[in-house]
Amino acid sequence: MNVLCIGDVVGAGGRRILRRLLPPLKRQYGVDVCIVNGENAADGNGTTPAAARELLDSGADVITGGNHTFRRQEYYDLLDRSPMLLRPANYPASAPGSGVYTLDRGGYQLTVINLMGVAFMEPLADPFDTLDRLLKEAGDPRFCIVDFHAEATSEKKALAYYAGERISALFGTHTHVQTADGQILPGGTGFITDAGMTGPVNSVLGVKPELAIAKMHGKLPVRFAEAEGECELQGVLFTLDDSTGRTLAVERLQVR
Fold it and tell me: Which of 40, 214, 223, 239 has its CA 20 to 30 A from that of 28?
């Protein structure tokens, strides 16, 4: 099984390049399932129903979220109604939506889990304990991919090692910078610290550089805006063993 995981889609530019490049990429690599992090897909960050629909129409099978998932209240109802739209599972149970979804394709079932880190981020439920609970509730699925939306690289890798042979792969999101450490951990778990960003190349995490500089250098509030110009799609392709669910290969993708 080939599972393509796309790094954070940023704004209109990210949505446009995803719509242009994802269909041919799925054909080229024989992608069976595509997971897209869409927490910044709306213009100005967050996700809206229209932005989510555009990602699905472009070829996403599951949309994961992060710390900006609840930025747009108009997205709440859709989270409750659409199981393939995820938010981090370690938010309180009262939050809209769910953090786990099992995609049933008849011949196989793939469980996708969305978690958020707590190091330098919101004080949510422990992601390690949450993962334990979700895997048990899902019946220890053969195929399981985790999107861990976290700030600290150490927390991401620690969770991957902690999950061990219980999951197929874990990919990090949130930092918008693709890392060069795609690998297979002992026991066959695929891993990459961050899948990267799908959005403007000449930017600071998708934002116009001058605005990011003004915020960091001037220390005053700045209204961010998406950068313009050429965009790039970044992600990671995990090839899973059909009989065991373990990862056989990890390939980073950067496409313009």
Answer: 40
Residue 73 has a CB neighbour count (10 Å cut-off) of: 10
**pLDDT at position 44 over 90:** no
Could you identify the residue written with the tokens 């950067």? 254
When divided into structural domains, the chain yields a total of 1
Residue 68 known to be catalytic: yes
Q: What's the pTM value of the predicted model, to 2 decimals?
A: 0.96
Among the options 68, 149, 174, 176, which is catalytic?
68
Taking residues 90-95, report their average pLDDT.
97
Q: What is the CATH number of the domain that holds 192?
A: 3.60.21.10
Q: Which domain holds residue 43?
A: 2-255
Would you call 82 helix, strand, or coil by DSSP? coil
100: left (phi over 0), alpha (psi -120 to 50) or beta: beta
Which of 18, 2, 56 has its CA nearest to residue 196? 18
**Model confidence at 227, in pLDDT bands (50, 70, 90)?**
very high
Share of the chain above pLDDT 90, in %: 95
d(CA 136, CA 113): 12
**Nearest of 81, 89, 39 to residue 60 by alpha carbon:** 39
CA distances in angstroms from 242 to 52, 61, 225, listed in the order given: 30, 19, 43
One-letter amino acid identity for 200?
A: P
- The token pair at 32 is 């069976």
